[in-house]
Design goal:
It is built from 6 helices and no strands. The N terminus and C terminus are likely disordered.
Length: 98
């Protein structure tokens, strides 16, 4: 495997792990990876991997802002990924109205 293949393989693994049991999580994660997957920097890829370790209900609560990340997840890269995931496919005008 070449060095150039590794990011593609890592993205494939993330995309596979992003397949969830809850449709809401599936949609938000798929949109995020479609928009940012190819350009995902290592800290954000690692943050996403940490989020994917959560169960579906816990992840959904974070995505819907019903709770904040626990201490072990409370890192700038995790918060940035969560913000992008929460933005989902909303139009730019809807994002600025928050």
């Amino acid at each position: 495997m070449t060095a150039a293949d590794q990011p593609t393989d890592a993205l494939r693994r993330l995309r596979w792990r992003a397949r969830r049991g809850l449709l809401e999580n599936d949609i938000l994660l798929a949109r995020f990876l479609d928009r940012h997957g190819a350009a995902l920097e290592r800290p954000h890829a690692e943050a996403l991997a940490r989020l994917l370790e959560l169960g579906d209900p816990e992840l959904l609560e974070l995505l819907l802002e019903r709770r904040q990340p626990d201490a072990e997840l409370d890192a700038p890269s995790v918060r940035e990924v969560l913000a992008e995931l929460r933005a989902g496919g909303a139009p730019a005008t809807a994002q600025t109205d928050r």
